[in-house]
Structures are given as C-alpha cells and as structure tokens.
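Q: Predict the bound structure with S-adenosylmethionine.
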Amino acid sequence: MAGVSDLGRRLVDEIERDGGPLPAALAAAFAAVPREAFVAEGFQRRDGRWATPGTAGFLDTVYRDDVLVTKVDAGVPVSSSSQPSLMAIMLDALAVVPGDRVLEIGAGTGYNAALLTRLGAEVTSVDVQADVAERARLALLHAGIAGVRVLTGDGYAGSPGDRFDKVIVTVGVAGVSPQWLAQARPGLVVVPVQHAGTHPVLAVRGEPGGPVTASVICSSGFMTAAGPLSAAHPAGHPAPVSSGGLTGLHPAAPARWPRPLTSLRYRDLWYAAGVWSTRATHAALPGQQQNTLILLDDAGTGGAAILPDGTVLAGGPEAARCATTAATILDRWQAAGHPPMQAWRVTLRPAGDPSAPILAPATWELT
Ligand SMILES: C[S@@+](CC[C@H](N)C(=O)[O-])C[C@H]1O[C@@H](n2cnc3c(N)ncnc32)[C@H](O)[C@@H]1O
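A: Predicted complex:
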C-alpha cells in the first residue's frame, strides 16, 4: 500500500493535473501535512455512507482532490474539509510569506490552518461550532502542528483586539465583515461571496470605511455561513432552486453555439448573468447534468433557464419577460467577447443588518 507521503505527492499530482504547477512551497505543504489526521472521526462518502479510518479505501479517498464532509446536521453538511484544488487556489491568492499573521474564518477540520502554518503563517482560526473548533484543536495537537490558535465564535467579529496581515474565509458569505478589514489593515481578504446562487472567491482590499474593491479569483460552491455574514440584502440574488422546484419550462430560443460551453466558460457566463440580473441563480433541472443558470421570476416558481449551448427555456406567468432578459444577457456576453469572471472588478458597499453590516458586492465593471 502507498505510504502517506506517497499519497501526499499523489494529491499534489491530482491538484496539478487540472490546475497546473503549484508554487513549490504550496506543493510541499500539501505533500507534508497528513490530511487523514484532520478527519479522524471520518467523513460522509459520496454514496452517503460514513467512512472511518477502519473503512476499506479510507486513505485513498482522503488523498483525492475532493471535499470531505465531516459533519451533517438534519441531512445538511455543516462542516467539511474543502476540495484541495480550491484550497490551493485560495492559498495561492493569499500569497502567504513567512511570518504573516493570518485570520481564518471557518476552522472546520483544521487542515487549511495546518497548511497555512507550513507556509510560515501564524494562524488564528475561528469556527462558530464549538464541537468543530474543539475537534480542530485536537487534530492540530495530534498532528504536532504548532502556531494555530482555534477560537469558538461567530467569525463576523474576527478576533477582537488582534491585528493580522491577511484574512482567508473558508465558508460562503453574503459580504465581508468590516471587522476583518479593521483587524487586517491594510490587508487582503480572500473570501467566497454569494453571487447568482454560488460563491465566487474574491480578493478584497480596502478600509472598513471604504472604498472597498475586489477582483474575482475563481468559482466555488462553499457551504453558507451562519449569522450576519449571510444577511439578505436588496442587491442579493435568490437562493438556488432545488430539484423539482421549476417545472413547465418550454423552449423559448434555440441553441446559440454548436457545442455547449465548457463548465468553466459556462461559469463565466453565469457570473456575467449575475452582474446583469439580480434574479440570476441556479436550479437542478431534469435531464441536465449540471446545475443550470436561471433567471427566477418574482414568484420564484418560473422564469428562464440558459443552457450551456445558449438554448433558453422559459415558463410561468413571466416567461416572455424572463426569456427576453436571458436573450439580452447572452447578447451582451457575446458582444463583450465572452469575458471570464476574472475580468470583472467589483465594488463593495455596506448592506445587511445596520447593527452588524456587511460589505456586499454592489457594482461591477469590466477591465
Ligand atoms: C468548509 S468548512 C471550513 C473548512 C476548513 N477551513 C478546513 O480546512 O477544514 C466551513 C466551516 O465554517 C464554519 N462556519 C459557518 N459559519 C460560520 C461563522 N459565522 N463564523 C465562523 N465559522 C463559521 C462551519 O462551522 C464550518 O466548520
């Protein structure tokens, strides 16, 4: 059987296969930190069953480039070790240099915090769930990793009284806490922020009183944060529609492209749709292999779906209006030369509960 260090190198190979070479320090961190130490109580497999260290193939699955769900509440995943390739992109964007003081929101298993220490950071990691935070502390202890302080609390507050160089957020939020910007001046916050039903990762910079701007790093599908970080706001998009939530969609416009967009290009279109329509989100539609970009009508029961080949389906009382909006979005995206999501610059403004405001995406421009 392969040893843990062989498995660590295989994980690096898997991450690099789709994402290209990792910076040497990051590759060394993934190869060296034993991921299994952070899932000692097991995880939920893709088939729904729980895998524990005694389960056949346990280590093999731990060292795949896949998310490991480590806590489920009423059937809903509430903690996990994120997909390593996504962690790698976010850690790369954080550009850690030895000695950096890093605030992590969402300690989860503690694995990302351990990788941060391998990169030379001093880490404070906050998790809202006391049992999850305690498990992360124990995992770090058993793995012999020093340099991480795990706090229990709502990450909205950051770590009051402390100063950081950078912030990394590993849970999906509706906006950035001004406390992070105050604690990490003049820092950088790498954070997945709600947009059209998903959580694209942003690199946010600015002062708590503004201006606060961001560039887009990549798409992601993080679990949603508890508390004020997930506050609803007028510029926010509707939540995704679950399977069977939209029925009676019929063809409203034919395919635009002979071949469907790749999943990456489809996400770029999806991002643009979220810029141009506050009704953009996604739905699980029968017969579609992946979640489908939709423009949900005001009632939330109909609207227009844009398929990866540009076909528009529409249904419900506002079908005609939603189909027209879908066609306009496709025209604009084509006219703009199919911009990738990374081409957008975002400005964030105060939103949410005035007693616990967040800075949420408000305007976008193409660079
Ligand atoms: C995807 S997991 C984090 C993965 C983690 N960084 C790792 O390496 O395993 C998301 C975590 O965010 C935590 N969380 C959710 N809302 C939070 C909040 N408002 N403040 C702090 N943590 C929160 C959850 O309890 C969960 O453990």
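A: The two ends are 50 Å apart (CA to CA).
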